[in-house]
Amino acid sequence: MDFGIVFPSYLDAWKDAAIAEDHGFTHAWFFDSHLLYSDVYVCMALAAEHTRQIKLGTAVAIPGNRIGPVTAHSIATINQLAPGRVILGLGTGFTGRNTMGLPPVPLKTWREHVLQCRGLLQGGEVLYREGQRQQWIRFLHPDHGYINVRDPIPIYIAASGPKALRVVGELGDGWITPLPTPERLTEGLAAIRAAAQQQGRQLGELYVMALTTACVIRPGESLLSSRVVARVGPRAIMLYHALWERSVVAAHLPEELRAGYRAYAQEYIGTLQTPEDRRYQEVHEGHLIYLKPGEERFLTEPLMRRGGLIGSGEEIVARVKALEQAGLRQIAVQVATNGRELIEEFSREVIARYR
Known about the structure:
Blueprint: E1 2-7, H1 13-22, E2 27-30, H2 40-50, E3 55-58, H3 68-81, E4 86-90, H4 95-98, H5 107-121, E5 126-130, E6 133-137, E7 155-158, H6 162-171, E8 174-178, H7 182-198, E9 207-212, E10 214-216, H8 226-244, H9 255-267, H10 279-283, H11 301-307, E11 309-311, H12 313-326, E12 330-334, H13 339-354
Parallel strand pairs: 1-2, 1-12, 2-3, 3-4, 4-7, 7-8, 8-9, 9-12, 10-11
Antiparallel strand pairs: 5-6
């Protein structure tokens, strides 16, 4: 099992990435959401310069916010700084789009973006379309030290819905998913393999990475203790943001949590002062980094458990091992507050016990 640390991109994330590398983490991932965080590739460049072996990836880059050739160029530049330890994660967009009041990019656009990145990163020539125009393009100076396309850059696809899962099977080197149950993981892998088979693609062992966060409960703490809420609460409440946006991120939430969401939508979102045509801006403020005042009262123990890996070290290890049996290759935990505390705690209580 590989272990990743995930950053809402901030300029000092390289410091925590270096600490994570020294504490047994194999991957460092960076969110791409331009109205929320720092620039993802600037943060990755700093991490590349200050680490030795930890792999660096986007989780995930969003088509529509950059054209395909720019995405390929950016990740190939990081690969020049950190040869052979770079991964391009691509998705259709959650807050990278929703914070602009826009839906995820259409699957056709997303698929074309993946294909353009794939071809350029393999050193090939691809067809680029702009409106009614289309032109063949390629990197003109791949061997002059500006970028690195010699060392392979795998493309992992973030997907939850059935159509997106088909794209993973058709084009992905890996699959990025929110923390699933073993049953959901098995179902998703079956759909991906079926899509690959339909395309005549030999998929082999697909690399699967799950995004979540984690908190090891201390003696006397509960799931709703202040430290646990600060760590996991922002990711838990995100599920209600996703329901409000009708996002597939929350497509499989049980009715118990949907009932809690209805109270949140009426008693919290319904009382916001932001005009309705701009309300998405206020809803996504603090996304995955802090709770807005008043949101904490809508957190419940079931919602917190859905938001991350919470429990004793032994309980978390058992949960991860069950996912490994279902096909998971990496668990990646996200920093919200006090990144060093999370890194050291997870390394001591989970990674060390796991190995």
